[in-house]
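Researcher: Quick sanity check before group meeting.
Model: Go ahead. Protein one:
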Amino acid sequence: MKLAPQLVITAIAVAAPIAATAAERVHLANGFDMRCDHHAEVGSVVRLYMSHGESSFIEMKPAEITSYETVPDPPAPAASAPEARTEARLTPADLHLMLADAGEQHNVDADLLASIVKAESNGNARAVSHAGARGLMQLMPGTAADLGVDDSFAPDQNVRGGSAYLDELLNRYHDNIALALAAYNAGPAAVDKYHGIPPYHETRAYVARVIHEFNRRVIARQREAARELQRARTSAAISAALQASSSR
């Protein structure tokens, strides 16, 4: 695995999660894109505001931005919403198998993928954010299209695309999980601009939440491995004792 089963420690204050408030998708000249709530021209720069207020923003040169795209409101629930909700949540076994397969294919720890799914959608394959991100790993329509995902609500496609995207980010940031998660949430442009985790409350809370869940899963995995080892040793000791007794 690309990511060794060890705890991740990062200096991020754990804050209460807040809902995404972005309403625009900003296309950048470097080929990347990012989300923001709104933008405004201030003097010779463009400010990309990360929330409804004006306290959190990024300043960029106009030449760094190629276009803006208004993020549509999430689609209204279909008439068959009760049935859709029944189908939307996979069984834990199904989701575990899907994430394990994706993790093996992209050389990413399956527990990290599971931690992202929990933070992004809590396992709801038909989840839609205010910004328009969709599915288990909350892919934006443009990102999904770039990853070859035709239907973000199809669990297998969404996990495949999200895992491939995370793999790209881990390679980009040399397996620094915190930076990869920050880029997954706020976009690589924001991480590159600040040379680290952007000073956005939402992004810092998101990174801390995912890492906390990942650490919890790693600890549980280590404990289970220790129990399995102890059971194997006990079984071997009993077998040896029985063999010694029968040879007398």
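Researcher: Fine. The other one?
Model: Protein two, sequence then structure:
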Amino acid sequence: MAALNLEPRLQAVMAQEYPRFSAEEYARRHRQLATVMDKAGVDHLLIVTSNRAGNATQWVTGWPGTVEALTIFKPGVQMTMYMEWYNHYPLAKIIAPEVDVQWGGHEGIVRAIAELKRRGAKRIGVIGPLPHMKYGQLEQHFAVHSLDAAYTRLRMIKSEEELDWLRIGAALSDAGLAALLAGTRVGLDERELSALVESAYISHGGTTMIHYIGVTSMAAPHLYVPRQYPSPRKVANGDVVFCELSAFWWDYAGQVLRTFAVGAEATPLYRDLYRTAEDTFDAVTAVIRHGTTMQEIIDASGLVEARGFTICDDLLHGFGGGYFQPIIGSRSRPAGKLPDMVLEENMTVVVQPNVTTAGTDDAKRAGVQVGEMIRVTKSGFERMHRAERQLLRIT
């Protein structure tokens, strides 16, 4: 098992049987939820995870949620969680020790409604993907208000402890990239490349968020952005491999994007694409700081179009607990209306110029991936990843 070379405090986090944040960190989160509730005028929250979707349960209790978790939250009162399945119940009690964890008996929403009635609840805030029919059941008894947007806002600014967990996620993602670089060889297909990536972090307790890997010929490219599902396309000399990798440390993932050539030097086109992507990354990160406007980011990316290229993937997006605003494209490929916001200290964002050739014939376009997750600071940014940034060649 390759070492991650983490600082002692991060090693200590990873050494826990089931890692948890400090009591002070959970108290901070609960205070933030209390403020959200007060502003919305609700007396209780129902926090939902359904079929592994919805991470608020983990943020509030520590339990990641599997099939279903319905957690009743009120400041100053012990939380009650109704969860499935029965064989998941013993572990949930260990991972969420401060919560009254109960098996939902395949009727968790019924039991949650009964408990809310017992408490005299009137106005309920919901965070997470509560299915439509269950939402309707809740509305039969209470005034119900979605607080997903408010929760998302809380997740956009990271605490110091959260930043440490993201550093672990970044190290795990970097390990996946290192394994990909070390193990790629002619004859392996994209599925086997994915297995290389996962092999690097599973033994450290990491899990997969994504590994998008593309393999195409530099002389006759058929692919300009890594696809979300691997194909049986085999690596050959003269190919380019580009990737977007994210490994989780529980709910905290890094994201690293790189491009490398196989068995040959990069062609002039790919050198130009890559140089533009690197220059764009540097230009965008040069303007990043607390208070950066969205237009400043768009302006910094203008050299993509100035050199005759465009992008496919988003240029920049918020990250760490979700795929957050700001989500920004470029002048030639906008990502919708520019969000009305500025960057703030301790946001984590991914800058990822997926520079591609222009045109509408997808079968003939070429592209590269460059970038990584960074932390916004008061006067600039902090790299969260340690992976080398250059157009690499493997033999």
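Researcher: One line on it for the slide.
Model: The first helix runs from residue 8 to 15.
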